[in-house]
From TrEMBL:
Family membership noted in the UniProt record: Belongs to the purine/pyrimidine phosphoribosyltransferase family.
Tree of life domain: Bacteria
This protein's record includes keyword rRNA-binding: no
Group of enzyme by EC: transferase
Annotated Phosphoribosyltransferase domain residues: 10-159
Subcellular localization, as worded in the UniProt entry: Cytoplasm
Predominant location category: cytoplasm
This protein's name: Hypoxanthine phosphoribosyltransferase
Catalysed reaction equations from the record: IMP + diphosphate = hypoxanthine + 5-phospho-alpha-D-ribose 1-diphosphate; GMP + diphosphate = guanine + 5-phospho-alpha-D-ribose 1-diphosphate
InterPro entries with a match to the protein in the record: HGPRT, Hxn_phspho_trans, PRTase-like, PRTase_dom
Native source organism of the sequence: Anaeroglobus geminatus F0357
GO terms, biological process: GMP salvage; guanine salvage; hypoxanthine metabolic process; IMP salvage; purine ribonucleoside salvage
This protein's record includes keyword Magnesium: yes
Primary role: Purine salvage pathway enzyme that catalyzes the transfer of the ribosyl-5-phosphate group from 5-phospho-alpha-D-ribose 1-diphosphate (PRPP) to the N9 position of the 6-oxopurines hypoxanthine and guanine to form the corresponding ribonucleotides IMP (inosine 5'-monophosphate) and GMP (guanosine 5'-monophosphate), with the release of PPi.
Amino acid sequence: MHKDLEKILLTREEIAARVRELGAQITADYEGRSILLVCILKGAVTFFSDLAREIKVPAEFDFMVCSSYGDATDSSGFVKIRKDLDSDAANKDVLIVEDIIDTGTTLSRLKPILEDRGAKSVKIATILNKPSRRKANVTVDYNGFEIPDAFVVGYGLDYAGRYRNIPYIGILKESVYKARIL
Ligand code: 5GP
Ligand code: MG
Ligand code: MG
């Protein structure tokens, strides 16, 4: 285990098994259609590349970078698109791929934006979900794991830009935050 982690929450094997299940479910739900997979950079990149390979219907890839403004825990905060899609979402079945849904602010703002562009459907897949932290209403269509209210890193998720390449998901030691504040 990485020395900065308190404990491993989800192993590589557990994540891979769940991603396979989600891919199978998505493949069944979108049978006979094609899909526009939208990766929310950077955190979702690992989940996105694993999930995409488990989806057996035709899929296009696109990428967005978003920032939430205002108080991070305030659902009235708005979302700024810092890098938009290259493709036109109109008449597409869009699947947004996220790393974690926490307060729900980001996705509660992003989903209507893509719907307003005339997408045929907009659904959400996330590898992690913290329902106890929810402030804004979001329907999660494909949910990897529900986790407790702890700060996690790995499998794409960072703390201050670090730990994204850890191949499993773990809880960061409190001493790591404290070291940064001092
Ligand atoms: P929200 O759902 O509150 O709008 O924001 C979700 C975003 O907050 C995620 O995409 C992620 O960047 C960040 N986030 C929330 N909880 C965690 C966590 O436990 N670990 C990490 N690394 N990022 C988190
Ligand atoms: Mg994210
Ligand atoms: Mg981050």
